[in-house]
Write a structure and sequence with these properties.
The complex is a heterodimer of chains A (301) and B (256). Chain A is mostly helical and 301 residues long. Chain A is built from eleven helices and four strands; from the N terminus they run H-H-H-H-E-H-E-E-H-H-H-E-H-H-H. In chain A, the strands form two sheets. In chain A, strands 1-4 form a two-stranded antiparallel ribbon. Chain A has a two-stranded antiparallel ribbon with strand order 2-3. In chain A, helix 1 runs parallel beside helix 7, helix 1 packs across helix 10 and helix 2 packs across helix 9. In chain B, a hairpin with a 2-residue loop joins strand 4 and strand 5. The chains are: A mainly alpha (301), B alpha/beta (256).
């Protein structure tokens, strides 16, 4: 039973990170009809900026302070990369969806290549406080502290994002734009500004996801291709949840995280197939698409 | 002296307007002057080019010939969003509200366009800022104030039509282009909507309305134009136009 609960907890933590990665993708698709293949790159950049900042500041500041700064740096790095991508690369290609997909794939390949050239293919280690590597115990259940961080980050982002979409003036524009972009611009509203904004928000969440994935599931190690492997699961989450739906992404991220975690442990450890969790997620995707081709929550932001 | 000259500038001046698509002439040689404060009813059989005419005015289609001036300003090359900022408001045959937004948010979105996007995107729309006040006033005007917080997708058809008008009021549209506002509306809601449109006109707005419901057109319009086969067949005060033989021929088989 205690193993079951530990797995539930880490599944939810994994789901939180998938949510961070997927909600931006979903928002960008919902508003702009762009499948953003550079989203994995924003995750990788977030992680590398965090690593760069954390390893260049004096260690005397203490690991907890450095880690908090690293989290802020990942958010800023991801959002800056995304904002620049939107303004300089996506904007000239408005109304050309195929070109947009190709350019985001190309950008991802090029920058990942540059990172490989600059930092090498070896993983880099992010300094983290000791507390983050330890686990807390609730009775017989052992709960890794890093899972708490992922869970809290996911919850905070979900609450802030919901608040922003429901209550802020741009939230109204974004929700209306997801429903009918042309009608919003016919009202005389500059939708282009909302486009840049969803990229910046999506990039911020992606950057944080890139750092947290390394810390929670990858032994504090970052690598240039990590974002791209995370991107595949983010896309699966977006499709299961329904393209354009934030709540759908949140629910789907939890389901995918839990399914992957449980199958990895219960089936993977017995069959010796380490990657069986990934297979189960793809099967889940196939089942959901068969049952609801437009995802669980399509059409409701 | 200047005020007299200004008042002579029509709200809309349309000259030689034409549109063709795929080699088919859909609209040709349309000349209309719409004085400020006028109410122009646009009638004609299906396929006569009425909606095309509204689409050319609102900028959704680019004319193949001719020119449109809005209060003396040539509209060539301006986007629909710019035209709505110049005071041109448009409704559609099918509903043009955002069903996922609340009634208030629909009106507020429209008012936001007028007051410009604040760079402070995170700011909560405060209940007392200009755009919110404009939105609430518009909802009160059309009688939807009490439904402000409801999801607009759940409104009755008649209430959706009211909301579309509130959206134009909130945007401070001076010239309303209404495309079949009675389409799909319950017959018991028709008098209420007719009264509302009359009130919007009475407050000084210029209205161009495409409508099949003749009693509504005759009751509201001071000028009726008849389109047939992409041309302006007749134009004049309601009684004269309805008595016109050509008009009756164009409408043959359709009740006038």
């Amino acid at each position: 039973m205690s193993v079951f609960l530990t797995l539930a907890f880490s599944g939810v933590a994994l789901g939180s990170i998938y949510f961070l990665a997927a909600s931006g993708l979903s928002l960008i698709y919902g508003l702009m009809d762009i499948l953003n293949f550079a989203h994995g790159l924003f995750m990788t950049i977030g992680a590398y900026v965090a690593w760069d900042v954390a390893t260049h500041l004096p260690a005397s500041w203490g690991a907890p302070v450095l880690f908090i700064i690293a989290m802020v740096a990942s958010v800023l790095g991801g959002s800056l990369a995304a904002g620049l991508t939107e303004v300089f690369i996506i904007r000239p290609l408005y109304g050309r969806p195929i070109s947009q997909i190709l350019v985001t794939i190309g950008l991802d390949l090029a920058v990942v290549g540059l990172l490989l050239g600059g930092f090498g293919s070896n993983s880099l280690s992010i300094p983290v406080p000791l507390w983050l590597i330890e686990a807390s115990h609730l009775g017989h259940v052992s709960l890794p502290n890093s899972d708490f961080v992922a869970l809290i980050a996911g919850l905070v982002v979900l609450v802030v994002l919901e608040w922003f979409l429901r209550r802020s003036r741009y939230g109204i524009i974004i929700r209306a734009g997801v429903e009918n972009r042309d009608m919003v611009s016919a009202l005389g509203i500059n939708v282009g500004r909302a486009f840049t904004l969803v990229f910046v928000i999506g990039g911020a969440m992606a950057g944080l996801a890139g750092l947290l994935y390394a810390v929670v599931f990858s032994g504090d190690l970052i690598a240039p291709t990590q974002g791209d492997s995370l991107l595949i699961f983010a896309f699966i989450v977006v499709v299961i949840g329904g393209l354009g739906s934030i709540r759908g992404s949140a629910v789907a991220a939890l389901i995918v995280g839990l399914v992957q975690d449980y199958t990895n442990y219960y089936l993977g450890s017995h069959s010796g197939m380490a990657e069986i969790g990934n297979l189960s997620v793809v099967l889940l995707l196939a089942i959901v698409l068969e049952w609801r081709p437009r995802g669980l929550f399509q059409g409701t932001l | 002296m200047t005020s007299i000259v200004e008042s002579q500038v029509p709200a809309l001046h349309v000259s030689g307007l034409g549109f063709h698509a795929g080699g088919v002439q859909i609209l040709a040689d349309v000349d209309i002057d719409v004085p400020r404060g006028a109410f122009v009813g646009i009638i004609g059989p299906n396929g006569a080019g009425k909606t095309t005419f509204l689409n050319l005015l609102s900028g959704l289609l680019i004319p193949s010939a001719g020119a449109i001036e809005l209060e003396g300003r040539n509209l060539a090359g301006t986007a629909p969003s710019q035209r709505s900022q110049f005071g041109l408001g448009r409704t559609f045959q099918t509903s043009s509200i955002f069903g996922a937004l609340s009634v208030f948010e629909n009106a507020r979105l429209s008012a936001q366009a007028r007051f410009g996007g604040s760079a402070k995107f995170w700011r909560r729309p405060r209940p007392l800022d200009e755009a919110s006040v404009a939105a609430r006033d518009a909802l009160t005007m059309v009688g939807l104030a009490e439904m402000a917080e409801r999801p607009s997708g759940a409104l009755s058809h008649g209430d959706k039509r009211k909301l579309e008008l509130a959206i134009l009021v909130a945007a401070e549209a001076k010239i309303l282009l209404l495309d079949e506002p009675m389409a799909g509306v319950n017959s018991e809601d028709v008098p209420m909507l007719t009264e509302l449109i009359g009130r919007l006109h009475g407050e000084g707005r210029t209205v161009l309305m495409v409508e099949h419901h003749m009693a509504v057109v005759v009751g509201l319009a001071d000028t009726i134009t008849v389109f047939d086969s992409g041309r302006l067949l007749a134009m004049g005060d309601p009684q004269t136009v309805i008595a016109n033989v050509d008009v009756q021929r164009a409408y043959l088989g359709q009740p006038l």
